[in-house]
Amino acid sequence: MSNTLTQQIIFDLDDTLVHCNIYFDQILDEFTELLSGWFANTGITAQEIRAKQIEIDIAGVEQIGFISTHFPESLIETYRYFSRLLGLDAGFAQEEQLMKLGMSVYDREIEAYPGMTQTLNLLRSQGHQLHLYTGGESVIQQRKIDQMRLTDYFGERIYIRRHKNVDALEEILTSGSFDRSRTWMIGNSLRTDIMPALSAGIHSIYIKRPNEWSFNLVELKHDAKSDMYTISALEEIPSVIANKLSLSSYSGVKQSAAGSN
């Protein structure tokens, strides 16, 4: 495959290649049930508990990034909020229980999304260069990478950052040998994957997942300097890229023919 057809493809990890949100949702279900019991007969609803936790969670991620203790701390802060609202003292034992519950999310067995290995194998066999870019703490993210044996596909081209934003992606692109005209960002987050990719002028593929985390949903401004595609499954990625390359090749042929007339 010629260099013009070889693409540099950057994959997000969580909820792009492997499941993530489902484990947090399971913990939040347990958390909501706990608080509903602790605050029974007070008028506090499960919906109010979930809404407040989301508010606290998102505010914290925007400020400090993806660190492991933030999620359990958001559970504790939600408990403290409703305790203050009701004029109650927050209990140390309850807070300890919430910390353990929140941290347990990182002990869950990681499960790949359908089509992960087939898609990565196909793209690699086609000569594309694969990269992995994920947000979080190195120890936790590396455990997922090792469990899924993802270094077989990405080698040393793995980037773990606490913050995933425009600046973080720009630093990766400028410090590496990326040709932006043939670089792709693939991920499930409009905020941390697609918006930075559009800002950087690289192509992007948005994998739309059901029940997406509110933090990931933002309104995009796409100025058409780069292409953006929306799909629902990993298996669609190779055909999207192949179709883009076919159109580019056809356009190049037309321009060449026009120039020779």
From TrEMBL:
Segments crossing the lipid bilayer: none
Record GO terms (molecular function): hydrolase activity
Keywords (A to Z) from UniProt: Hydrolase
Keyword Hydrolase included in the entry's annotation: yes
UniProt xrefs under InterPro entries: HAD-like_sf, HAD_sf, PGP-like_dom2, S-2-haloacid_dehalogenase
UniProt protein name: Haloacid dehalogenase
Lineage of the organism: Bacteria, Bacillati, Bacillota, Bacilli, Bacillales
